[in-house]
Amino acid sequence: MDTTKLEFLRGTLDVLILKALVWGPLHGYAITNLIRRHSDDALLVEEGTLYPALWRLENKGLLDSEWGLSENNRKAKFYGLTQAGQRQLRLEVKTWEAYATAVAKVLDATRPPMSETIA
Amino acid sequence: MKSTPLWRRYSRLLGPDPAADVKDELRFHLETKIDDLVAQGWHSEAARQEAERQFGDLRALQQIGTTLGHEMERRKQLNDYWNDSLQDIRYTFRTLARDRGFAAVSILILALAIGANVAVFSVVNTLLLRPLPFADSHELVWIAPPATNCGLSCATYSADAYQEFRMQSRVYQDVTGYFTFSTVDNLRLTGRGEPQSATGIFVVGNFFQVLGVHPAMGRLFTPEEARHGSHPVALLANSYWRRQFNADPDIVGKAVDLNGTLVTVIGVLAASFDFGAVFSPGERVDLFTPYILDDWRDDGNDLTMIGRLKPGVTVAQALDDANRVAPDMYFSVKYPETLGRYRGNLVPGPLKDYVTGKLRHSLIALWCAVGVILLIAGVNLSNLLLARAAARSKEFAVRGALGASRGRIVRQLLMESLVLSGAGAAFGLGLAMSLISWLAHQGSVALPLLSSLRIDGEALGWTVFIAVSTAMLFGLLPGLKMASGNLQNALKDSGAGAGLGRKHERVRAILVVSEVALACVLLVSAGLLLRSFVKVLDVDLGFQPDRAASVKIEYDDSASSGEASRAKRGAIFEQIITRVSALPGVEAAGMSDNLPLGPNREWDTPVPKGKTFAPGELPDPLVYVITPGFIRAMGIRHRGRDFTWADGPHSERVVLINESAARVYWPGEDPVDKILMRGSEEDRVIGVVDDVHEENVESGTGSQIYYPATQQRPSGAQLVIRTSLPPATLAASVLRALRELNPKQPVAEFRPIRTIVDRAVSPRRFFMLLVAAFAGLGLLLAALGIYGVISYSVAQKTQEIGVRMALGASTARVQRDVVLNTLRLALAGIGLGITASFASARLISSLLFATSPWDPTAYAGMMLALLAVTLISGYIPARRASRINPMTALRSQ
């Protein structure tokens, strides 16, 4: 399967970035790695989408940033969740789960609902 | 990673740089990726190419990042600023709440000063700055001759002259005018319960069109309605329609009975038009009827002229044009010799100058006075802030030591003064509103446009402007003073009163001295105006206004010939006066067509028999047609005899003249029994009366002549009653007597003569009261300032005083020192103030009446008042100082 072709549903990238940061601040490169690894290489985040998303979230006040040294001793910009970011994450996870459950229920259905056929 | 690395602390030393940040961030990503690829076994060059390929359009990405970064930076700065300001405001409220006394006093001071300023600004704006309440009012001119002292007759024009001027002039869109000699309550409205008096004015048919006044209902006059023989019509003033007709929506087309004639109401004028407010301040005009030119051709000068210039025409051009037209104008076309009589007598000037020009000086003086008040209040605020700042020096030192920049501390102090002046402005605005609405209802003050006073957008803008500039100007001084202080000294300084305190005290002393000086200037000006006012009240008016009252009389004047009407009038007047004189409490009664300080007119130029004068040497005396008893009822001194009822239509023609006329006609001789010639008619002078102020209290008097109503035709009748009782108590019985004689007599106002005088001096009283109030306010503020400084210095020196008392200084000695300190400040301020007063007195000298700008009484009186008040305000803290207990003071260290 060509994993890079897996398109992100609109808004999904934001919640993934927020989720990636719950264990602590990370720089952009580490965020892509984390998402790739947790999705078993299914989700590859392109730089061209990742960074604008990061900056947008920072602008919205969901993320804050700080410069620091990376593991390979380079200066890197680390993003962390703000309080608003954490709140947003909880909210979006809930929405996503409700959405996923609903979609799954429809997809798992094997016969038409009873009441409807009678009516 | 948590701690910011050292390089990062310096890399953005010169401020944030979003573009570089984005570049750095992306480079890190790229390099790490290359590292990873190399670790996976890629060749380094191939790894770089692969990484860049994956990255896509690097430049576009950088572009997005930079834009977003800038946006964020801006927002962050704004946010920081806002947060700081919020913090400042919160802090300000907290500190002010801790120091409620200080806050209350400062806000009160500012509210008084700002309130006075806003109120006066509204008055100045309405009367001086704003155009008159007419469309394109700058085009309107008032056409009048240069000022002379022959009264209204010289300021007006005949019907023929008006018509000629209107036709010949080329610079006007149109010329109009109104009848000048209308008197108050000249109409009688009947048919609606008791007969009611009303004041009507004849206006030239195009009057409202020229002024640009629209009817609220109905229509304006048509040219036909201004012609002889047309059906009588009237326009109602909006206020009269509301008052008299209960705002009857169907009034248009109805007929009303005015003086026995049925007049059709054709419209109600717009509420925004107030004739009295513009043309006859302090009086109301109820309705308007057309001035029919043909009916007035023989009446002489009785029209004022108002023109609307064509767009772009200047007043100078209008004057040239008037000088061109004047030689072709007749006083009356029936008399060819009157051609050219108006030469040099047609001077157009802006209507606005006519309406408010005379008040210009007073208003500017008033404006300056409130400006001084604001200055004093500002200095006071500065002083209070300084005292507080001194007490808070340690607080600021600590804040400075903890990293607050000077700018931040100054900002904090400015914020405090802004909050104070904002609160002051809010209360001041309320104050100004009540003041203005009170003023707007002072109908008896003869100032134009008063009724249109209100707080409008401009006044609000002015409020904000003065509040902010006061806060900036007077909040900055303590701010700078504080920020320039030495932090270490302030921290080390354990007790109050050391170095910084002394320096502050000097600044504060200078502030107090200037406050006293400013208050002194105000007080001296007020003193001079007060003296002038007293002098005006002391003016010998030529009559006794107290214990006399007047009422307008209606009488039947319908006899056909002049002869018969004189006889009939004489009989009616004699009956009325005999009847009224018999009422208990009435000492004297008499009638005149015009009263002093009211409208007036002249007829012609009498010549003493047997004498010759050069042309122009003889005056045109003002004419009063009176009955026997009037001279006594008015309280006019006279020699010779008064008219009697025996001076009838068939007996010898007699006149009374005033002293001024006597001096001109027969200098050094006794005029009694001499003969005055009017054309071929001979009038015998039977007595001489004192000069009576005919137009206003302040200017001099000219020649006056009195004719008996039994021999000449009066233009109306004002009954004057002199009484031993308060005039108001007589109103009912007099009116009842008049009703019995003439059931048509309307309910007319019973006016004490004193109110006529009061109205005449009301503008001066008004300005004097305002300036005096402002001076009082200035004095209060200065006293507060002195009190503040002295009690502060006493508080600062508590220990010193304690030590001195412990070493044997007596209570009296301590008190004396403090009082002497106050005296020094006060004297310095007064000295400075007197010097400044000499300059300001010269500026207001045109407002003074019979008072020198260097009037020693005013100066000395005000100096003493100021000294007394300052001493009292210094004595209170002095007493407190002398009560200091040495032991407590020393222990408190």
Mean pLDDT of chain A: 83
Instruction: Estimate nothing, just give the exact number of structural domains of chain B.
Output: 4
Low-confidence stretches of chain A: 1-6
Biggest chain contact = A-B, 24 and 29 residues
- Main sheet makeup of chain B: 8 strands, mixed
Classification by helices and strands of chain B: alpha+beta
- The radius of gyration computed from the alpha-carbon positions of chain A, rounded to a whole number of angstroms, is 18 Å
The share of residues in extended strands of chain B comes to: 5-15%
The number of distinct structural domains of chain A comes to: 1
Instruction: Calculate Rg of chain B over CA atoms.
Output: 39 Å
Please tally the helical runs of chain B, counting DSSP H or I stretches of 4 or more residues.
Answer: 26
Enumerate how many helices of chain A there are, as a single number: 5
Main sheet makeup of chain A: 3 strands, antiparallel
The gross shape of chain B turns out to be globular
Please indicate the percent range of residues of chain A in DSSP E strands (runs of 2 or more).
Answer: 5-15%
The CATH topology label of chain A is Arc Repressor Mutant, subunit A
Q: Please tally the β strands of chain B and state the result.
A: 23
